[in-house]
Amino acid sequence: IKSDAVPYDPFCSKELIAKQIYFESKHINVLYNIHPILPGHSLLVPKRHVENIGELSEEEWKDILKALDKVLPVLLKLYSKGSSSYNLSFNVGPYSGRVISHLHMHIVPRWKNDQFSKDANALYAGLYKDIYEKDATKENITAEIERLRKIFKYKPAGAKA
Catalytic one among 27, 41, 104, 106? Predict the structure, then answer.
């Protein structure tokens, strides 16, 4: 059945953003992935709804780089077990495996002998499976979001000081 209805976009949902955000800049929200494939798996999401890279303004691109410059070193320190390895990826277009049409970048800290070290393709398959699910309980994810909020001194809008 074909539907012309606009699909639900969680990254345009203030409620979802409020639950997962730990860093914010002028044009970008950084969220902890609620289905992380490895610890620290985060999503860099433009605040403005865009579906592909070509729609980003020059100012948004600059803000993406600034956000990465702030967030990535902390994620590596916390999660990569001394490694400087990580994956950055955008899934763009309907055949890329993208599930949510709102453009977002995956930031995945990596380390020697992580569960994907022998088969890099399994990492991308993991984006759509709950490989890390045993440790990715709702409580653990919430605790990681709160930990990162403290590190980045992020206070959600409307939060009491």
Answer: 104
